[in-house]
Design goal:
Length: 259
Amino acid sequence: MTRTGPTDWLTATGDELASIRTALLAHYDHSRRELPWRGETDPYRIWVSEIMLQQTRVETVIPYYRRWLERFPDLEALAQAEIDDVLLEWEGLGYYRRARNLQAGAMLVRDRYGGQVPDTVSELRALPGVGEYTAGAIASIAFNEPVPAVDGNVKRVLARILDELAPSGSALRSLAKRLVDPKRPGDWNQALMDLGATVCSPRRPLCERCPLSPWCRARAAGTQEERPAAKPRGGVPKSVRITAVVVDQREHALVERQP
DNA sequence: ATCCCGTACT
DNA sequence: AGTACGGGAT
């Protein structure tokens, strides 16, 4: 492969897409993090791991994930559990709504789908606590559906590939959709997330070790540290407080008031 | 798009 | 106390 610079992803050829997929998947195959849910394809287990990983770091989740599967080894076990037992098992993870949603979802799948987790993004999205990201992750990892899974890490990776300060949701989705490897969608999505967690970090990304650097516009421009843009501090004030003091001609205050 | 939520960090 | 974060919900 000979390359002259980062690709225009809107017009990328099939060969170019194949090249970037091959590069990242090869990297993933030899340097992926070994995690308890890696290589797993049981949709219930992927579901549990993805919900636990929302707003919670990997190291924290690992022991909870293991204990959870001992206590609730399959969807049926979770669906018939007492909510108090569910919450007890979740204790320490925080965001307890996730646990309530997970069990409500398990009951829903049991009652509406005969215990089989649905395999489409739209059906998955109907489960409580499952949004676009989580639905894509479950569909791709557990069911090999060629759909993207764009979490915070992936957003950063894509923003750097595009060298955009604040790529729109639609720009991110369309690029993510084009990139997904049709043969190994689950591995592809996990590879992108892994890359964001380990190489394409928010600060000081390790571009020298990045298998995607040949395709990365930010890397070519040297702007990787500033992509995506930091959030504007504070934002636009919604109101401005004005205080006036009325004085007479000798500058004695006639009216004073504490705001 | 924008808001909301619960938590961690400062 | 205030803010940043990363998801979901609307």
